[in-house]
Amino acid sequence: MLALIAGRGALPTVVAETLPTRPIVCALEHVAPTDLAPDHVFRLEKVGGLLRWLKAQGVTQICMCGAIRRPEFEWRQLDMATLLMVPRIFRALRRGDDGALRIVIAMFEDAGFEVLAAHEAVPSLLPDAGVPTFSQPSPEADRLARIGDDVSADQARDDLGQACIVARSGIPAREGEDGTDAMLRAAGQEVKGGILYKAPKPGQERRADLPTIGPDTARNAAEAGLAGIVIEADGVMVLNFEETLRRLDAEGLFLWIRERPE
């Protein structure tokens, strides 16, 4: 049986609704998933109790999906089942995004669970490489995408962010904690004609926190005046693929599902 550790955003709902059998849905307190009622709500201080509860339900596989902000740790809420896990939890809270996820995944695996990526549970989330839109990328888009590759390498070193806007004048915006759509909504006039570049950080753990785009991304990219979106093939999930393409085609933007150069 599969359980989702569901965060915010559309991804947990898409995964749950696409699977042939509804998974058990768990969520951190105060981080309820969008449009998906959790079966079990837990606190970080009681994650040991969560693991016991999952085993009692017959869960053998875990899929972590959706955005989660790091919660504060409150000693008064600690349960005995979590006590021995506290050093690992504190190491995770001090690490960057990828380092924290690796520790959390190891905790689930050490407890006997198989950890699946969202795209392993729902393979259709990763579309084939190519340009499925009517609009096609220009040679300028290729130049900007190569700049995006360099930015992505920088983001890997900082362990923060998976997207940026690349314009002819340079790099006006990098993704922060508020996410891609917030970056697009805050973009100024200088990004017009540029691209949204999105890719996993090189070397990151891909069983959680793989980047996504969807219809809202398409709309916000169009409103920002971008020429198109470049995502890494086999590295970025597309939610509601057909609707995303319809919005991009209606606005004249391209989607380039690009194989990243070696």
Strand order of the largest sheet: 3-2-1-4-5
Strand content: 15-25%
Oligomer category: single chain
Total DSSP E strands: 12
| Rg (C-alpha, Å) | 19 Å
* Gross geometry: globular
Tally of helical runs: 9
Q: Looking at CATH, which topology of the largest domain would you report?
A: Cytidine Deaminase, domain 2
What about the largest sheet?
5 strands, parallel
Mean pLDDT: 88
CATH architecture identity of the largest domain: 3-Layer(aba) Sandwich
Number of domains: 2
Estimated structural class: alpha/beta
Question: Could you explain the architecture of this structure?
Answer:
The protein contains 9 helices and 12 strands. The protein is an alpha/beta fold and 262 residues long. The protein has 2 domains: 120 residues, Rossmann fold, CATH 3.40.50; 133 residues, Cytidine Deaminase, domain 2. It has a 5-stranded parallel beta sheet with strand order 3-2-1-4-5, with helices on both faces. Strand 1, helix 1 and strand 2 form a beta-alpha-beta unit. The two termini are 38 Å apart. The model has no long low-confidence stretch (mean pLDDT 88).
